[in-house]
Specification:
The chain is an alpha/beta fold. 35% of the residues lie in helices and 22% in strands.
Length: 639
């Protein structure tokens, strides 16, 4: 007889796991206001289904699903799965644990320790984990480690992943130092630090004959735990996350008497977690391409169309609709001439005629009325109604009037822009949605290699501009140093070769990619050119500045990829400087073209990706029209 959600059924010596269902942050606003993270649709299947299927296939017999918010919805879903006889229900018990007072991952584990439900070693999963790993061999390996090291508390499951890999989140960049027995000596999430340098404790090199420094790893958000882990969380209330736990054990190893180990997955073994919108897109892409076999989207829930489009049951699509790289939920209705690219549309949503949606996410039960355009990383919460001929760009939109509503945020009776304030008065409002949308790269995922550097990007014709994806902190610090170096160099008339050496030194200090270097160097020079000169002669001064940095520009604009970075820098500066004269764009493009920094093909290809009708598109169009006319005249003369 199957158990109901919330009914705890023990099995002696069962292999156990803990799944924490809540993220305890606002990464998934505004969707998370109405929908629990565990039920977030991934290829029209609730996220928790992938997690439970993985645990069942991995050998787990009893799972404790810890919930703090949207508890009733999660319970209903688990009971529905049990009633329908989902695959995992045949081999695994799921007990839903509820505690609405918990405010962190650590609080959940302390609550579980107080309940005394865990017996022996167990598997610990952070929210949104998706994997195809066999867990029983990992449990046996951890058990063998504990026989030799009585203080072994946790084995972190990490996966080999090159820098720029699709499933590797730049905000979770990881650096690990381990000895020959895979005991973790140093553990640091580089994506969450502003430190320019990394200081390793000298003793790890003095006390270990062999130390491996590993930067080719990603955190799968899976850990194998000894029975001591929950008491350690209970005894240390400053352990709020798994990373806090690892850091605390490494810093206080002699006091706590506990150690941490790691196991590295290779080959077709996969582990990852949907912790933000960027990882939502990445894992959706990997599931669509069956890279996480045997986990995959159900063919009962989806049908695959051309152009990499997945459509749920009951969805109606007009013959004149244009779809590309999109996932549509169940019972979605698309009107005539609808265009949807690189986007996710959740269930029970209606898109009326002549609507354009690109690089965005549309929540459940939304209505987007005729001739509207939603683009540039926008996210519509559940139940929003976007009125006719509305333009939404780079915004979070909610159906109800928010508490911090300001004039201009209203898009309709059931559509309001949501303003979010985080971290030191940083306002993530209409202009930029900060860390949420910096991770939202809706589009084809490819590897891009340039001078042995591997960087995550979207395909050439669909890449989001830097204006829509704010750079991480290290990149901002690098950009600041470039500005300082170039300003000082121009004022003191330093040789450009010396400036290039300074820029390259900063590049390696901050570990930025070549793409980021190209973009930020050109952007820095262009920003300097905006300074108004005394006595007029604006464009003469711009030309003088660009001429001075000729050597620098030639050094960093060497190939087609760098030309694209240069054009994106021009776009970023132009779109962020509202008072900039329209002729500035034409002047800069003409200058770079005449100097052969950028080619005609690179300009026209880049122009084709711009949003039609936008102010920047209108600024660029006269120059591209001139290029096309010149080409036609040249062809006529040759005939």
């Amino acid at each position: 007889m199957f158990q109901k959600a919330g009914q705890i059924v023990h099995k002696e010596n069962a292999v156990q796991a803990i799944v924490v269902a809540d993220t305890f942050d606002d990464e998934f606003l505004p969707i998370s206001e109405e929908m629990p993270h565990a039920l977030l649709p991934v290829l029209n299947r609730p996220l928790i289904d992938y997690t439970l299927e993985f645990l069942s296939l991995g050998g787990i017999e009893e799972t404790f699903l810890f919930c703090c918010t949207h508890v009733d919805a999660v319970k209903r879903h688990i009971n529905k799965c049990i009633k329908n006889g989902e695959g995992w229900t045949l081999t695994m018990k799921v007990n839903v644990i509820v505690s609405e007072s918990c405010r962190s991952f650590g609080d959940c584990l302390r609550d579980l320790d107080a309940k005394g439900l865990l017996r022996g070693e167990f598997v610990l999963l952070e929210p949104g984990t998706v994997s195809n790993v066999q867990l029983l061999p990992l449990l046996r390996k951890h058990n063998n480690i504990t026989k030799n090291d009585k203080g072994a508390a946790m084995t972190l499951i990490l996966q080999e992943s090159g820098i720029g890999g699709i499933g590797r989140c730049p905000h979770e960049e990881l650096l690990v130092a381990a000895n020959s027995n895979n005991r973790v000596l140093f553990h640091k999430k580089l994506g969450k630090t502003k430190d320019r340098k990394i200081a390793f404790p000298l003793e790890i090199f003095l006390e270990n004959p062999s130390v491996s420094l590993l930067h080719n790893l990603k955190d799968t958000h899976i850990a194998i735990c000894s029975a001591s882990v929950l008491p350690l969380f209970s005894d240390n209330f400053d352990f709020q996350t798994k990373d806090d736990f690892v850091r605390g054990l490494l810093m206080n190893e002699e006091i706590l008497g506990s150690t941490v180990y790691c196991h590295i997955l290779k080959g077709n073994q996969y582990g990852g977690s949907i912790t933000n919108w960027r990882m939502y897109q990445a894992i959706s892409y990997e599931l669509r391409n069956k890279w996480i076999h045997p986990l995959m989207s159900s063919t009962k829930r989806n049908r695959k169309l051309k152009n990499d489009v997945y459509v749920g049951d009951g969805t109606k699509i007009s013959e004149s609709a244009g779809l590309k790289n999109a996932v549509l939920g169940t019972d979605v209705i698309l009107g005539k001439n609808v265009k949807i690219e690189n986007s996710f549309v959740f269930s029970n949503t209606k898109i009326e005629d002549d609507v354009v949606i690109t690089h965005s996410i549309i929540g459940e039960h939304c209505t987007v009325k005729s001739k509207s355009k939603i683009t540039a990383g926008s996210i519509l919460g559940n139940g929003c109604v976007v009125e006719n001929d509305t333009f939404v760009e780079n915004s979070l939109v909610v159906a109800k009037k928010p508490e911090n509503y300001e004039e201009g945020d209203r898009l309709g009776d059931r559509a309001y822009r949501l303003r979010i304030t985080v971290d030191d008065e940083e306002d993530l409002s209409i202009i930029g949605l900060g860390r949420r949308l910096s991770r939202l790269h809706i589009g084809d995922l490819t590897y891009e290699s340039d001078e042995s550097e591997c960087a995550f990007s979207v395909s050439d014709d669909e890449e989001l501009s830097y204006t829509q994806t704010p750079p991480p902190d290290d990149t901002k610090l690098f950009y600041t140093e470039v500005i300082d170096s170039l300003t000082r160099g121009f004022e003191d008339k330093l040789p450009c070769d010396n400036l290039i050496l300074e820029i390259n030194s900063s590049r390696y200090a901050y570990n930025v990619t070549l793409k980021e270097v190209n973009f930020n160097v050109v952007k820095a020079i262009l920003i300097m050119s905006l300074r108004q000169p005394e006595g007029g002669q604006y464009f003469a001064n711009v030309s003088r500045l660009l001429t001075y940095f000729t050597t620098v520009l030639k050094n960093y604009i060497r190939n087609e990829s760098a030309m694209k970075d240069c054009l994106e820098a021009i776009q970023d500066v132009a779109m962020c400087s509202e008072s900039l004269p329209d002729k500035w764009v034409t002047f800069v493009l003409q200058y770079f073209y005449n100097k052969d920094y950028i080619s005609e093909d690179s300009i026209l290809n880049w122009f084709s990706t711009l949003i039609g009708g936008s102010k920047f598109h209108r600024q660029v169009k006269p120059f591209t029209d001139w290029l096309k006319e010149a080409e036609e005249e040249s062809e006529d003369e040759s005939e």
